[in-house]
Amino acid sequence: MFSGTGFKGMRRTVIAVSAALTMGIGATAWAASSASAAPAAPAAIPRCQAGDLGVWVNADSEDGAAGHQYFHMDFTNLTHHTCYLDGYPGVSAVNLSEKQIGAAARQDPVAPAKVIDIAPDATAHATFSYVDVVVDPTCKPTTPALLKVYPPDDRGAAHAFFDLPVCAKASVTDLEVARVQAGV
């Protein structure tokens, strides 16, 4: 049916087409693997959650005037990735059973609103103020075991040691907290 030269020519055509297809498929596979090996766009920075943070009242930052004591409430990122905080933390004094003592801290607008990125092992802070209840003994001073601290926009809480007497009357607010700021 095929002459010797016709069969050889067809055979060469089939081999050439096969080689072209193989090279095309190989090039496509290489392009796909090269694309996946390319660096991906950086992921969005997640919000810091309570479990991501170590929180404490920095006693070394204490400052005071006219019955008020001011501290830095420090937030240290314990993860291996950067996360951010934005706004006011929620703060309330609690006993060992986590029953709230008195009113939650009110928000102090002294610090500007801004998003604060916290690198791994870095720390941000919020100014935390406390009114010395000895000034007003009618508020039934009670010493809490801890502060329950909710990072901004988080329902989970972290705890910070705090043993200064607070007012047990829910109608009296003697704690204030400002927005989170960069640095310690």
Short description:
By secondary structure, the protein is α+β, with helices and mostly antiparallel strands. The protein is built from one helix and 14 strands. The N terminus is likely disordered.
Task: Give me the CATH architecture of the largest domain, please.
Answer: Sandwich
Order of helices and strands: HEEEEEEEEEEEEEE
Largest beta-sheet details: 6 strands, mixed
Number of domains: 2
If you average the pLDDT, what whole number results? 81
Tell how many strands the DSSP assignment holds.
14
CATH topology of the largest domain: Immunoglobulin-like
Strand content: 35-45%
Report how far the terminal alpha carbons are from each other: 90 Å
CATH class of the largest domain: Mainly Beta
- Cα-atom radius of gyration: 32 Å
Supply the key terms.
single chain, 184 residues, alpha+beta, Immunoglobulin-like, six-stranded mixed beta sheet, 14 strands, 18% helix
What does it look like?
This protein has one helix spanning 4-37; strands at 53-65, 68-77, 83-85, 90-94, 100-101, 106-108, 116-118, 123-131, 141-142, 146-150, 158-161, 166-167, 175-178, 181-182. The protein has 184 residues and is α+β, with helices and mostly antiparallel strands. It folds into two domains: 1-38; 50-182, Sandwich (Immunoglobulin-like). The strands form four sheets. Strands 1, 2, 6, 8, 13 and 14 form a six-stranded mixed beta sheet that branches. Strands 5-4-10-11 form a four-stranded antiparallel beta sheet, with no helix packed on it. A two-stranded antiparallel ribbon has the order 3-7. Strand 4 (90-94) and strand 5 (100-101) form a beta hairpin. The chain is globular, with a radius of gyration of 32 Å. The termini are far apart. Mean pLDDT is 81; it is low at 1-41.
